[in-house]
Amino acid sequence: MHSGVASPADRRLSALIRHLEGASNAMDSDTITASPTSGFPGARNSVFEHVVRAPEDPILGVTVAYNKDSSPLKLNLGVGAYRTEEGKPLVLNVVRRAEQMLLNDSSRVKEYLPIVGLADFNKLSAKLILGADSPAIQENRVTTVQCLSGTGSLRVGGEFLARHYHQRTIYIPLPTWGNHPKVFTIAGLSVKTYRYYDPVTRGLNFQGLLEDLGSAPSGAIVLLHACAHNPTGVDPTPQQWEQIRQLIRSKALLPFFDSAYQGFASGNLDADAHSVRLFVADGGECFVAQSYAKNMGLYGERVGALSIVCKSADVASRVESQLKLVIRPMYSNPPIHGASIVATILKDRNMFQEWTIELKAMADRIINMRQQLFDALRSRGTPGDWSHIIKQIGMFTFTGLNSEQVAFITKEYHIYMTSDGRISMAGLSSRTVPHLADAIHAAVTRVV
Ligand code: KET
């Protein structure tokens, strides 16, 4: 083995010894010429020298830029997070009350939850989205696992499908929430899009949607926004939902609902679950990812659920056993606090009632902001038809502003939004509407 010529490993080792001796003798870092991969303390180059800077997230990066702006006028309409009329984050009273109850209960401990999460939370979450009288629940055909908010639920569902479903292609609407393609690609699915939004009518491209899903391969997965489509604010009508259902079932496509805004679209939890319940009522299978970030204001608690509606109780229980194998190596088991808050509220009739009132108030304030912004643009005579502001549903308005106009608004008016022209109506207040209307007016008249 000893050929007289030192191997690369030997050379690196002896260089390292020389450097260490040199460093201890002279403490002179200039004599250290470690290889870029040596990584020992004092090495000039990092072993990560080759790592290139990644761009900020298109949505969460807006908040990063906003935080750096020192203007007193600055306004963040980027991320979909509810703000009060005073522009402050809101913790619901009912959430505070539930937290106080949890705090006062000295029997509560901090043990690990099971891999699938808090049992009460899972049962109540399935009831919330599918309806208290859902036959699928009564027949034990639904398996629900607590996940890390909506994103985590989508990811666990995606990974389960990549492992156990015969079709790896998922169709997502164009456009959609920017994280969808990333979540599903990394879960191991292949992402394709179906037409959804028509920029000319600023409404649903229903024909395009039917054509694209109609030509999807049999069995393909279809991602649907349960309500309050993000970013467009455009939802199918109940009649259109029924046509979509028929098409999906006739082609044996697999519906995967993303329900991040239940209660935020109409202010009514049942009305906003209509699309999901329509699909479950026909006895077919489907996936639902739920988030409590927006509707309970539990953003940072990361509380959500994945429900898989199956054909039989036996299949559902086997599916659940496999979901555990997806979750255990990913994050072991979910956090206890947020799920306990949700379970406390959902299981108590009075607290549930109180929640629905607070939720309705949030939804109503957003609807009111739509009207105020629309009126403000009309009174300024801003060119264009802005009726989509009051027609669109949910947390966002898809303004139609282009990326240059958005950049102009951010630079000149310190108003932050995603570059696709989406604004979070929940970030707006009566005080800030005129500022935004001035900015939009200037952008559409000065930047084309
Ligand atoms: N689905 C949709 C459609 C969605 O808009 C969001 C969040 C999520 C899922 C995930 O939410 P979670 O916090 O994981 O429960 N959307 C807002 C925040 C974000 O981008 O993370 C947004 O669009 O601003």
Can you describe what's shown?
The chain has 448 residues and is of the alpha/beta class. The protein contains 16 helices and 13 strands. The strands form 4 sheets. The chain has a 7-stranded mixed beta sheet. β5 and β6 form a beta hairpin. The longest helix has 32 residues. The N terminus is likely disordered. Bound molecules: ligand KET. The site of ligand KET has 16 residues, from α6. InterPro entries: Aminotransferase_I/II_large, Asp_trans, NHTrfase_class1_PyrdxlP-BS, PyrdxlP-dep_Trfase, PyrdxlP-dep_Trfase_major, PyrdxlP-dep_Trfase_small. One of its GO terms (molecular function) is L-aspartate:2-oxoglutarate aminotransferase activity. Its EC number is 2.6.1.1. Belongs to the class-I pyridoxal-phosphate-dependent aminotransferase family. It is an enzyme of class 2 (transferase).
Question: Can you tag this structure with a few keywords?
Answer:
448 residues, 7-stranded mixed β-sheet, two-stranded parallel sheet, 13 strands, 45% helix, globular, binds ligand KET
Short description:
This protein has helices at residues 8-26, 60-68, 93-104, 119-130, 135-138, 149-164, 180-187, 206-214, 238-250, 274-281, 313-331, 337-347, 349-380, 388-391, 403-413, 433-446, and strands at 75-76, 142-148, 169-174, 190-195, 197-198, 203-204, 221-225, 254-259, 286-291, 303-309, 396-398, 415-416, 422-424. The protein has 448 residues and is of the alpha/beta class.
